[in-house]
Amino acid sequence: MFDATTDIKLVVQAFAECWNRHDMKAFAKLFAPNAEFIDVVGLWMKGRDEIKKAYEFTHAKRFKNSQLTVSDVSIRFPSENIATAKCRWVLERHVSPDNKCLPARHGILVLVLSRNSKTWSIIDSKNIDIIEGVSSHPQ
Prior knowledge:
The chain has helices at residues 4-21, 24-29, 48-59, and strands at 31-38, 44-46, 67-79, 82-92, 105-116, 119-129. The protein is α+β, with helices and mostly antiparallel strands.
């Protein structure tokens, strides 16, 4: 039997695996029906269906051949049935709106998960681009 930390890491890994297969049906199932997701450009998706539709659209175009790698997964448990997972990500092989190859992007993904019975589902998510050269604190 897995422990909760392992279960959460499996959800984070599944996020990347579904993305890389461009399987937005499986991707959407990682989210609770009433989940919310704010992406790197500030699109605020409300509900599993809206998340699925938004990513089906982008994976048909800009992210069609993209590959997502996640690393440095950090997990906390504010309560027994709630977890936060943060990870670093690298996105490669994505294109601009005019279909030109773009350089790799780096960011941080923040997931809030809830456990129902034995299954963990994403209930809230925020995706953040890391902008190189920008510092908000003294060096």
